Amino acid sequence: MLASFLNAQQDPQFTQWYMDPVTSNIAAAGQTNLTNINAFYRQQWVGIERRPVTTLLNFDTKFGEGPIGMGVQLYQDDIGNEQNTMIKIGPSFTFNNNSTGTRFSGGLSLSIFTKRIGDFYSWVPPDGEGSIPNDPAIPNSVTTSNAIDLDFGLFMRNSNKYYAGISSTHLLQSSFKDFSITPSRHYYIMGGYNFSLSGDDLVLRTNFLTKTDLAATAVDFNINVLLNNMLWVGASYRPGDAIAPVLGYQLKMEKQDQISNSEQLLRIGYSYDVTTSELQSYSNGSHEIFLSYGFVFKSTPIQNKYANPRFL
Question: pTM score, two decimals?
Answer without folding.
Answer: 0.87
